[in-house]
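Task card 7
Instruction: Convert sequence to structure tokens.
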Amino acid sequence: MKPLRALCAGELPRLVMFDLDGTLVDSVPDLATAVDRMLRELGREPVGVECVRQWVGNGARVLVRRALAGGLDHSAVGEAETEQALARFLDIYADCHELITLYPGVHELLEALSTAAVELAVVTNKPERFVAPLLEQVGLGGYFRWIIGGDTLPQQKPDPAALLQVMRLAGVSQAQSLFVGDSRTDVLAARAAGVPCVAVSYGYNHGRPVAEEEPALVVDSLAELL
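Output:
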């Protein structure tokens, strides 16, 4: 695991935190199904997978607002409209997990880190109630000691609060920690928390190459970290 050692002064990190959607799993097909069902119930046209792929990464509320707005800029969407649509989206999404898939290299990396006694955590903007069941569904349920969802704390990424919380719980310093994500949101959160960020090139970054966000390292597969 030389790439990981290179980021942590020649030693394996003691703690590796992972984003979920776009990093460990491809959840967009299920999210798009739920978004389109919500929009149809509201008398609107569905938007499809490719639009949703551009809009995810900032939590369920922002995804719903972008769907209502039909684009990344959701400033014109009102709160009452958001609340109604969000409640329906969450109800629908609770039963939309048939299409989620694990990215190549994920299981191999988590197994190697676990074997090396590296502590593992998930830090995601997805509502917490969905995270553990999804991890179980894709066979990753036993790997993570801590799960921080988008509604676990008052703040969401790119605020560093969740990363700092996990480091406190683990009793691990910034120099011994690492964050793995797929988007500008993840890179900014890691930077604000003072930890290196490994970014995957295949994830969701609103249509922009994640290398533009200047993470510590970009990989095409998590297997490269082995």
